[in-house]
Amino acid sequence: MLLRDIIKLTPAHLRMITEWTIPSDSKIHTFIVGGESLERSLADNICKLFQNRVIIYNEYGPTEATVGCMIYQYQPEDVGATVSIGRPADNVQIYVLGDERSLMPVNAPGEMYIGGASVAKGYLNNVDMTRTQFIENPFKPGSKLYKTGDLAKWKKDGNLEFLGRKDFQVKIRGFRVELEEIQNILLSLPQIKDAIIIDRLDKASVRYLCAYLVKAADISEEAIRTELNKKLPGYMIPSSYVFLKELPLTSNGKIDRDQLPEPENKTSNTYCLPSSPIETALLDIWKELLKRDDIGVEDNFFELGGDSIKAVQFEVEAEKQGIYHGDMLSVQIYETPTIRTLAAFIENPNK
């Protein structure tokens, strides 16, 4: 029997509860969630699991501001990918500031700064870090602001929407990418139970995105790519996908990104040699483009590390070598992503 009636935990631990069988006489009536972004779909699933007899509070606050300085009660009618973190507690001020530390308007993302009675004086025996993270408050002289490193934006209703860590905002091919935006779309798929996105460097020191996924039901990598392509530009589509039984957690229940394994170089189970001059020519281009020698003609371009930019480079090189002179080979590769199927298309494009 479950004896505790109020539970405080992280979203990662809350997700584990979705696997439980909840007894009808459960005494749990309140969850207080914090530590990471809380997906609305997860909150909704928990409410349904407990037959709408529980209240979920989404709490926000770093240790440097005495942990809890904002809170929001989840409502089933809420919309959006994540649950709001609410409004500042009494004697707490929250500022969303831009690069020049100017106040950001409603719906404009910026970095969160915390002021007020709950802000610590600094880090013990660490003057440099204290000077960097605890700055003078330009809006209230004589007081300090804590620089959180978290991104957020004010909503029209006066609540704050948490957008993730600033250091989880990366640049891919010159474009700024919010990793949690991709993660939230993946989590909206019913076949995906858990997801995290990180950026990595390939052998050529080019930055790419890697998705780590826990399945709730069977779904192929190709199907996932198709769904992402409907909602995201090409530069935001992960190049690699790693399926895990569960995501690694730190001792305090947060996702442990340092323990995520390196993605394996994927090739087909059976290595297939080229059987025509066109397949041989395409294979040579792929080897040079993808910086790999272990490619067979049945291997998937995207599973090997290809992306939209490399697809365009492939098209240019194929045209330069006189292999193909039609339009949009870089688009066709999404439909026929192996050398064998591409060669068949090139040989008979009207089929």
CATH class category of the largest domain: Alpha Beta
Mean of pLDDT: 88
Strand content: 15-25%
Full CATH superfamily name of the largest domain: ANL, N-terminal domain
- Can you name the CATH architecture of the largest domain? 3-Layer(aba) Sandwich
Low-confidence runs of at least 5 consecutive residues: none
Q: Structural class of the helices, strands and pairings? A: alpha+beta
Radius of gyration: 24 Å
User: What series of H and E elements makes up the topology?
Assistant: EHEHEEEEEHEEEEEHEEHEHHHH
Helix fraction, binned, reads 10-25%
Describe this structure in words.
- Residues 273-350 form the Carrier domain.
- Pfam families: AMP-binding, AMP-binding_C, PP-binding.
- This is Non-ribosomal peptide synthetase.
- By secondary structure, the protein is of the alpha+beta class.
- It folds into 3 domains: 6-165, ANL, N-terminal domain (Rossmann fold, 3-Layer(aba) Sandwich), CATH 3.40.50; 173-259, GMP Synthetase, Chain A, domain 3; 277-347, Non-ribosomal Peptide Synthetase Peptidyl Carrier Protein, Chain A, CATH 1.10.1200.10.
- The protein contains 9 helices and 15 strands.
- The strands form 4 sheets. A 5-stranded mixed sheet has the order 1-2-3-4-5.
- β14, α5 and β15 (240-243) form a beta-alpha-beta unit.
- α6 packs across α7 and α7 (308-320) packs across α8.
- The longest helix has 14 residues, at 277-290.
- The N and C termini lie far apart (64 Å).
